[in-house]
Amino acid sequence: MSDVLPSETLVAEPWSDYALLDSGAGRKLERFGSRLLDRPDSQALWARSRDADAWAAADARFLGGKDEEGQGRWDIVTPHAEGVWPLSYGDARCEAQLTTFRHVGLFPEQRVHWDFMADRVGAGFSLLNLFGYTGLASLIPATRGAMVTHVDASKKAIAWARTNQEASGLEAAPLRWICDDAARFAAREVRRGNRYDGIVLDPPKYGRGPKNEVWRLEEQLPGLLADVRAMLDDGSSFMVLTAYATHLSAITLRRLVEDALGGLGGAIVHGEMTIREEGSGRLLPTSLYVRWDRHG
User: Fold this and answer.
1) If you average pLDDT over residues 121-149, what whole number do you get?
2) Which residues contact residue 135 at a Cβ distance below 8 angstroms, ignoring those fewer than 6 apart?
3) Is 238 exposed, middle or buried (0-12, 13-18, 19+ CB in 10 A)?
4) Using an 8 Å Cβ cutoff, are 208 and 216 in contact?
5) Do residues 66 and 52 lie in contact, with contact meaning Cβ atoms separated by under 8 Å?
């Protein structure tokens, strides 16, 4: 008996405010707007394609924290790297800054999901964004007229997302910013009987909610997906799941989604998310994903 599952590698291409310039020897060299950053990446085990001078031009280098959840510090090479600077994607704006978790407030590989959602939402479309971080996956659908409920357990992330909303000129957009534990919020939405046209979730491997709730991906994802299914109905359009820094395979994640979303019809696809390196064209893998698409 054949068990062939549709798999697809999603490729985030560079755009005006982002490019992966080089990778290798456990690091990646990226341009975020006007800043050139050198960050660790455990997937980049190959040889670098650019010379030492290209890497020496970095404005800042992140030291320590080689995995997604490890903290470290930035070695500021030029004063230009400090402070806040603007980034944009389409009509959405984001204020970037260096953080102790090596992130800057924008995950460029998520472009593949931003584009996917932008093609499917419109005025009146209801979207739930769980583990929403700084809000690009909420703001981009909002630029298309979607009604977005954005949930994150971090007060700092919610404040950052609100700042990005103002920078994007979306103060009047139908956006709800909710600081709460994503799993608890989803369970309450199920009890209230609320439904959504689309749901996107980007859960961490491990995390804590505002009331010290503990989140462990392998233990709690099945229950959360059951609640996600309860918030989708025959009129819903899609569900997008992204998973970073997990030992689970993309097939395991797909099986969980298949079990949870059975009976909804449509198509499910899984695979890896990647970023295309400028010049060489090499693909740097970043995370796993599963999508359910009613019209796929």
Assistant:
1) 97
2) 94, 129, 150, 160, 161, 162, 164, 165
3) buried
4) no
5) no
pLDDT band at 1 (very low <50, low <70, confident <90, very high): very low
Distances (CA, A) of 232 to 28, 181, 294: 38, 20, 11
| Selection from 273, 249, 201 nearest residue 20 by Cα | 273
Q: Of 185, 121, 175, 174, nearest to 152 (Cα)?
A: 185
Is the pTM value of this prediction over 0.85? Answer: yes
What mean pLDDT value characterizes the chain? 94
Residue count of the chain, please give it.
296
Q: How many helices (H) and strands (E) does the chain have?
A: 7, 17
What is the model's pLDDT at position 149?
A: 98
Q: Give tens-digit pLDDT for 4-52.
A: 677 999 999 999 999 999 999 999 999 999 999 999 999 999 999 999 9
Q: Radius of gyration over alpha carbons of the chain, in Å?
A: 19
Does the domain spanning 10-293 belong to CATH 3.40.50.300?
Answer: no
Q: What separation in angstroms does the CA of 199 have from each of 42, 65, 239?
A: 29, 30, 5
Please check whether residue 205 is in contact with residue 68, taking contact to mean a CB–CB distance below 8 angstroms. Answer: yes
pLDDT value for 211: 77
